[in-house]
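Input.
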Amino acid sequence: MKRMTLTVLTGMLVGTFSFAQSKGKVSATRDTASYSIEEVVVTGTRNAADIRHLPMTVNVIDRKTLTEQHQTSVLPTVMQRVPSLFVTSRALMGYGVSNGAAGGINLRGITGGAGQLLVLIDGHPQYNGIYGHPISDSYQTLMAERVEVLRGPASVLYGSNAMGGVMNIVTRSMAHDGTKTNINIGAGSYGTVQAEATNQTRCGKLSSSVSAQYNRSDNHRPRMGFEQYGGHLKLGYDLSKHWNTYLDADITHFNSSYPGSVSTPMYSANQWITRGVVSAALRNDYGKTNGELSIYNSFGRHKIDDGTQDPSKPTKRYFRSKDALTGISWFQSAQLFTGNRVTAGIDYQHIYGHAYYTSKETGEIIDTPNKQSGKSHRNEIAAYVGFRQELTTWLTVDAAMRLDHHSVSGTEWIPQSGIVIRPTGNGELKAMASKGFRNPTMREMYLYPPSNEELEPERMWNCELSWRQRISSISYGMNVFYIKGDNMIQTIERKNVNTGEIENYGLELEADYRIGKHWQLNTNHSLLHMKNIIVATPKYKGFIGADYYCRDLTVNAGLMYIAGLHTSAGNNETKENFCLLNVSATYRLSPVVSLWLRGENLLAQRYEINQGYPMPKATFMGGVNLTF
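Output.
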């Protein structure tokens, strides 16, 4: 497979270069003002940079794309648009936590469920401080201006948990003076309701964005209800031409029920979860230098009834946990001379939490069987520096290094290097090598019988080669990558040990084609080989999307095919293959009122992503959108 993918890539590069040369010489000079927003990213560098000069692969999903299908969560749309990224599901609405939960974000076989893929909000890490994984029901569309996904390790900038990549949610803000209000209400299959309202205002130097939401669903199985409400607030103030500050807060609470698998039903298995984040930042931008000082706190409160298989014998206790991640981050980026960019930064994190049980009858606290006492606080401090230099109009080199010290796991050096070659004015050949790592979590070291206080960090290397080109109204890209990891934490004979390995390699393709004023086509495909099988990771994922725009009507259709998805491994290995067709349509009745309709799994496929949890067949949602 390695030879095949390299041969395909080389052939396409040669053909593309020949085509570009036959069209005539293209100047390598780039006018920054002409870049589209899709080509300017912050995730791979901390500061805004042209994606065409960066060696890493970053996908950008803008707000228009995120909202066209009227999804309450960013994850379904992100999964469609990013090759090699897969998100597990179990119902029409709600991912849940604990037993039977979904919402596992998997990228190139590296899973967020194990804390190896990091979710950021405005560049700040978001994960459960005790268990170390993201909480997928927290990532709502109402707060997102765009989502940037960096495929491959980003530990050099973001430290632990970014070993497999990052998904950065950039929050909304009002750019121009005025007021804008949006209300979106919908209802559909299985008693599902979704509602959200947002008001954005800017008056001179002051801007605000305020959002609130409510979602609920009975879902397609008994005892699988889901209810969620929350809100988002962002306040910004321009102190001067070069300085501005913002305060950002997001909170969500959801109640979720767990019905158990089809073969092993559960009763009274309920979850009450609150997650939130608050951050404040001071930014400066002088053109040749810019930076940010920020402080943030991500926190959670969790109450879980594990349920029972016998409804006549309810459980006698709740599992509870409180966790938080408080951090301070500073970086400054500067152009020291022509074609140069140097970025330096310091990160500090204080990670803390407590897990325990309480009696249902008395409310008395019951300690967990763990070694957590006195060890629920951890500190991490790191410094990093990155250097990027355009040596010529067609060649850019990039290198970075991070020194990360953890109060329990010790010190880790994280290097990264890459190169970008621009043989034509509209194409880039990129190569990079980067290291990723993840510190063991409190759960893995101190909670429950498998815990092991001697665990060391997980480590992996990622090497990739990519090509990206734009030809008139067509843009396309392709990647080949190789991942090698060791020290992976796994449970053997009821003990967590650093004996696991990762060896993955694969091929990724993506393309967009604008056809006149009315049609937009997009497609992406990924093929993954894993030496060691990982559950909920498809061998092949392909997506073809078509968007039609005609005056007041917008239609979005997407066909996704999944092959070789393991729902279980080992002696009882099972695989799933399925094809999903989703269609949404929006019709604008007036400048204020629009009607929308969305259908999912219109081919009525029978399939499972989590073993024992069949997904619903065709479902429908419809609603009204008001903008004024």
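The first strand starts at residue 40 and ends at 41.
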